[in-house]
Amino acid sequence: MRLTLSLQSRSPGAVHGDQAPLLMDLTAELDLSPREHEAITALRNSCFPAYAMPRSYSKQRPHLRGLVWQGAQLVGHVGLDQRMIAVGDQPVAILGLIDLCVAPAMRGQGVASAMLAELQPFARSKGLDYLFLIADDPSLYLANGFVQITQYCSWLRINDFKNYGVAVELLDDIFIKALSDTPWPNRPIDLLGYMF
Hints:
Blueprint: E1 2-6, E2 23-28, H1 34-47, E3 64-70, E4 73-87, E5 90-102, H2 111-125, E6 130-134, H3 139-143, E7 147-159, E8 162-178, E9 189-194
Parallel strand pairs: 5-6, 7-9
Antiparallel strand pairs: 1-2, 2-3, 3-4, 4-5, 4-9, 6-8, 7-8
């Protein structure tokens, strides 16, 4: 599946002068080419040097990738995982955001905010309740209407293709963005899988 979203309409500051508008391709993981995996790996490693890896993902391959291209250069990336999680005893449909990053030369131009803005109607059209992510730096997400929550969370602790069992911790770096009228339950979260 490939869906192209124009970022220009949501973020006019992201395009200057005679530059072509930036486009975000939503591409199924199975449809990515070796060239695209190489570009994702290079961008991800340049943006997260402390977590550099010889592959285009950290824990697991996500279902989709949001890829922002400027000509042949990859300048933005986000992994997208559709998942059912449990919050207390309530099932909640989320779109997990993984490794959202923008090339250093493109930062400060609204690219990341435009990506987040375009993902909301896409996820809503798929019947999902929330965008969900874990982040160390809250500034981008709070500025884009996400809510930071603190809740107990359990997930499958995996690293380098090894399973280390289930972790349960109180986390204060969870960010959610409502896509429907479903109220977020103030209950412990079970990710029913790996941590994004």
